Amino acid sequence: DAAINRIAAGEVVERPASAVKELVENAIDAGARRIEIAIADGGKTLIRVTDDGCGITPDQLPLALSRHATSKIDGSDLLNIHSFGFRGEALPSLGAVGRLTITSRAAGAEAAQIAVAGGAMEAVKPAALNRGTIVELRDLFFATPARLKFMRTDRAETQAINDVVKRLAMAEPFIGFTLRDVSGGGEGRVTFRADPESGDLFDALHGRLARILGAEFADNALKIDAERDGFMLTGYAALPTYSRGSAVAQFLFVNGRPVKDKLLVGALRGAYFDFLSRDRHPAAALFIECDPHLVDVNVHPAKSEVRFRDPGLVRGLIVSALRNALSGAGH
Ligand code: ADP
Ligand code: MG
């Protein structure tokens, strides 16, 4: 019911950037090859995510807006989460606090549209769309005025959205991303664009790194490829000379999911301890893959923390793999 959804929304959706994250993750889960994001006024008045993924059939559209109705797990194995999201919470939450319209077409089905505003759902109606899904969220938090007050400036929210999109784009180098600011109306202004990368995973990642952090970073980054006791660590770590004055160039992922985890950030810092002064932050894009049972990624739906069953093991893997790479590069 709408009240419960509004309360849940407070957990899942903190700000426009968290709505963008949920919608883009849904597009990724749908197998999209290209994802276009349009925002206006820091995402406060408009967030629109267009994908060329599998789409939703007309009969499934109301279900997509129902609480805990997810097509992704059956609920019996909550720990075994390989795809994104706090299951079945995002769309109902967004529909409870904003004006949400989903237009979609699945293979072999007709295109259809459903709308929900402040929790009031309308009937499914026919629509025109070639393929994929367009999710449009207008007037986020119009139904919860108290939350509206917590929004920061358009500029700050736009910046947070940029950050979220870049992190997701880093994790998915084979997918093309476009972020457009349509605040002024019309076609708007492209603020980030990354075409789908090709080659093997390292090629693709290297190309995406160059796109996001610059060619200079990518050309001076050390390839990381290590494994220990069921944990795989891959990615790129920059030479100490390419460190930054803040943590802006740290991209950490666990099972494909962007995280900002204290343990991992600490391990990264530890690996560079001998090579960097305290006011410098190493630049790296690191991917940890492990059996989902060895990590809990759902500590909190809107937070990007994780809980490893054996934190010491993960820390040791990161520190030793990066130190090896750095000493191999003459440090
Ligand atoms: P979850 O992602 O946890 O399943 P959501 O509320 O985010 O929950 O989405 C509910 C359901 O709607 C998904 O399980 C999926 O079946 C469908 N869905 C949402 N977005 C898309 C999309 N872009 N393409 C195809 N299906 C989607
Ligand atoms: Mg989701």
Automatic annotation (TrEMBL):
Record has DNA repair as a keyword:
yes
Protein name from the UniProt record: DNA mismatch repair protein MutL
What GO molecular functions are on record for this protein? ATP binding; ATP hydrolysis activity; ATP-dependent DNA damage sensor activity; mismatched DNA binding
Q: Any idea what job this protein has?
A: This protein is involved in the repair of mismatches in DNA. It is required for dam-dependent methyl-directed DNA mismatch repair. May act as a 'molecular matchmaker', a protein that promotes the formation of a stable complex between two or more DNA-binding proteins in an ATP-dependent manner without itself being part of a final effector complex.
What family is it from?
Belongs to the DNA mismatch repair MutL/HexB family.
Which UniProt keyword terms apply here? DNA damage, DNA repair
Domain of life, per lineage: Bacteria
Q: Which GO terms describe its cellular component?
A: mismatch repair complex
Which parts form a coiled-coil structure per UniProt? none
Q: Single Gene Ontology BP term?
A: mismatch repair
Phylogenetic lineage: Bacteria, Pseudomonadati, Pseudomonadota, Alphaproteobacteria, Rhodobacterales
Any idea where the DNA mismatch repair protein S5 domain is?
209-327
